[in-house]
Amino acid sequence: MALDLFQEKGTPLERQLFTWKDMVRRPYSKLDDDAFTRTRVILMNGIEADALRMKHLFARLNRELRPHLALVRRAEHHQQTMVNWLNPPDQTPLETTLGFEQLAIEATASVAIHEPDPYLAQTYRFGMLEDFDHLYRYSALYDRLEGKDPNNLIQSYSDIRPGRPTSVEHRHPLDDVRTSYDHKTADPLSKLHAITITASEFQTHDYYMTVGPFFADPVARQLYAEIASIEEQHVTQYGSLCDPDESMLEKWLLHEAAEVYNYYSCLAYETNPHVKAVWQRFVDYELGHLHYVMELFKQMERRDPAEVLPRTLPEPLAFKEHREFVRKVLSQEVDMRSNGPDYVSRLPEDHRTRVYQAQLNSEGSPSETVAAGYQWRPGTELAAKAERMGSVLEGRRLQ
Amino acid sequence: MSKDTVADVGMNRTGIKTSPIDSKDIIQEAQRAIPSSPGDGQGILEVRKQYARESGDGLGHVPPPSSLKGMAKTAVDMLKGSKPTVFIDKLGERLAFERTGVRLYEGALSKLDVYGSWEGGPSRELLTKILDDELGHFALLIESMEKMGADPTAMTPSADLSAVISQGVPAAISDARTNLRQCTEALLVAELTDNASWELLIDLARGLGHDTLADRFQLALDAEAEHLLLVKGWLAAGVSTEARAPMESAPTPAP
C-alpha cells in the first residue's frame, strides 16, 4: 500500500539519536551483495549530502529559519554518515566510481521512464546517455590500469559500451541551463525527480573532485578531471529544472518528501537485511523531518502542505536494469545536442559549444585515450590476449 | 624535465631539523599539554577487536561452481573430506595477481621508454618476456579454474584481499614522478609475493591430489623464480649505479 505522507508521522526529531558505534556499522560486501545495494548506498549518501548543502545555503539567506535548519540538518548529517560508511573499505575509489555511474544510468533511466513532463523526460534521457558513456570510460580505466574486470562490480546489469562520447559532452555553460518546471502546475513527481537526480549528480561531482587527485596515473587524473567537468554540467542542467520561484520552505518541504521517497524506494528493493534496517529507520526519520517542516510551512507561510505535496508516495524508483530502454534511447538520441535549453539534432560549426569543446580537447582527450579500441569482455581485455597466445600447457610462454 | 636519479640533495621540509626555533617551541607545548584521557594506543586495538567480532561474513564468499561438472567435482571433493573452495579461492587470487602483473610490466616498459636502463638494469626484451610469462600464467589459471568448474571471471575473497594488500604497487608504477629504478622496487614486492604464493598454491594442489596441475604450476613457479632474480639484480645494480654517480648529476630522460 502506498505510503500516506500525511498520516505517517515517522520518528519525532528529538528521538532521532545516534552513537559513533551505531553510525559506523558493518559495511555491505563488495563481492556478495547485489550491485544495486551499492548504488542505493551511493544514492542516499548523495541525497543526504544535498539535504545538508541546501540547508546551509538557506541558513545563509534566512535568519528566521536558521535554528530549524540546524536541528534537522544535524540529524541528516548523522544519517549521511551512517549511509556512506556502509561502503566497504576493500572497495577502491575507482570501484566506487563504477557504482556511481551505474547508479546514474539506472536511476536516471527509471526517472526518465516515469517522468510525466515530456521536456523533463527528454532532459533525463539526454543526461543518461552521457553517464552511460562514463561507465564505459571508467571501465576501460579499471581494466587497463589495474587489470581488473569492471563487471565484478556491475554484475551484468548494465551495458559496458560507448554512449554519447564524453569528448563531445563538453558544452558551453549556457547550453547546460534548462527550462524549469512551473511549481504551480508541475506534477509533484516531477519535483521529486528533479531533486533526486540533481542531488545524485552533485555528489558524483563532489566525489570525483575529492578522489581524482588520489590517482597516480596521469590519464586517470585527467579522466577524473574531465568527467568531473561533465558532472558540473549535469548539476547545472538538472539543478535548472527546479523552479526558482518556489519559496525556501516550499523547497525544503519538497526536499524532505524526496528524502522519504528515496529511502522508501531503497526499502522496497533492498536485499541485504542489515542495510534494509537502515532504510526502514531512515524512512521514519525523514517522515519526522517532513512533518516538522509541514508545521513550519503552516505557521510561517500560512499555507497548506497539501498544496505542494502528493497525498501518497508514487511508485518507488526502480532499482533494476533498464538495458532495453537505454539501448533504444542510445539508438535514437545519441547524436542529440543542446542549444540553450533546447535539444537539437546538430549544432552549426561555429556554435559556442563547438568552440568551447575544441579548446578543452585541443591538447588531447583523456576519455578517448583511456578507451582507445576498448571493448569490454568477461575477464578483462587481457583474457582475449591470453587466449590468442595459444597453448599455455607449459604454464609459461617459452621463447 | 624528468630526473632519473632519486636521492639528490634538495629542500625537503619534513624533518624536525628544518625549523630549529619553531620545533623547540612546539615540542615544549606538546609536552606541556595533558591528554584528555588516560591510556595508550591499545584502545584502538580494543575497538578493532570489537568490530572484528561483529564482522559477519568477512569480505565475501567463493561463488558456487558454474558448471554441472564442477558441482559434481565439488561434491566428490567434499565427500573426501576436503574443502575444494579453498583451492578455487586461491586459484582466483593467483589469476587476478598475474593479470594485474601484465599491467605492471606494461607500466615498467613505458618507464623504460622515458628513462632508458642502466648497467645491469632491465632490457626491453626481458621486461617483455616477463610480461608474456604473466599473461601465460593468467591463461593457465583461467584454464585451471574452468577445469575445476569454477568461474574464472569471479573476484574471489583472496583475490580481493590480495588487491587490497598490493594496492600501492600499480600506484607506484603509474605515478609520473617515479623512474624505472623506483618501479623495480614495486616489481620486487610483486615478485616476492608471487613466488611465495605459487609455492603455496602448488602445496595446496598436491595436498588435494591435483598432481597434474601442480606439475604445471611448478613450471610457472620456475619462471617466477627467474623473474625475482632478475628484478633483484636490476634493483641492486640501479641503486649501486646511483650511489656511485656524482652528486647533483641529473641526466635527462632518453628522447
UniProtKB/TrEMBL annotation, chain A:
Alphabetized InterPro entries for the sequence: Ferritin-like_SF
Domain of life: Bacteria
Name this protein carries in UniProt: Ferritin-like domain-containing protein
UniProtKB/TrEMBL annotation, chain B:
Domain of life: Bacteria
InterPro entries linked: Ferritin-like, Ferritin-like_SF
Disordered: annotated segments: 1-20
The name this protein goes by in its record: Ferritin-like domain-containing protein
Organism: Corallococcus praedator
